Here is the input.
Amino acid sequence: MNHDVNDFEGLLTSAIAETGARMKETPRAIALYMSERALHLSTIAHEPGFEQAVRAERNNVAMRAGIETHAQASAIDFQLLGLIQGALRVAAVALA
Amino acid sequence: MKRIAALAVALLTVSLFASCIGSRSKSATLFPAAELSWPAVQEDYLRGVADGVEDGELVEPAAASLRSSGDKLGAALTARDVSTLRTISWPSMAPWAQRGIEDKLQDGEIGPGVRLSLLEQVANFTTTITKLQGIF
Here is the structure.
């Protein structure tokens, strides 16, 4: 679990760095959340309506990224965009 | 199945990438996420309203009003219209979305783990809307 969070954080940080943005705390929070949601998805793949859960978790990560980023009042616009992009990239990798 | 999930997530994330590119304002981080999530949340919301009517807990005029409020919310998100968004009380509507999720579970359309994902989605949507209403 912790290993996954570190992986996610590393991917997220790299993705954000590619945009030229710098953030300190938020990537860790998003990485942790993504790890939790990915773990949850991996345990329910056999359930009816699984595709609804996949869509919901995609939305959950996107919304949480927006919420966490919005909480950082000092973050500049470019950082916000970089975080969203980074979070989405990690989301695509998370269950691969 | 896991590979299918990975593929689905990868494909679905592309749409949010597209909606985010070019956004530079602070609210652009919340609006795209809310707009992206609304169709799924609305599905559960309308399901809950329909279940309320079916169970006799809602009469049609009230149900129509709830559906109209949902349409108004969706339009406000699409238009990035904070003024209109502030006139909508999503927290008072959210229980209908939760009811829709429970109805899906009762009807066997989703499992208990999927239910948790959908409930999480409603919770995040509520937080996102609340923050959007307070941005400007």
About this structure: Chain A has one domain: 2-94. The CA atoms of residues 7 and 28 of chain A lie 10 Å apart. Chain A has four helices and no strands.
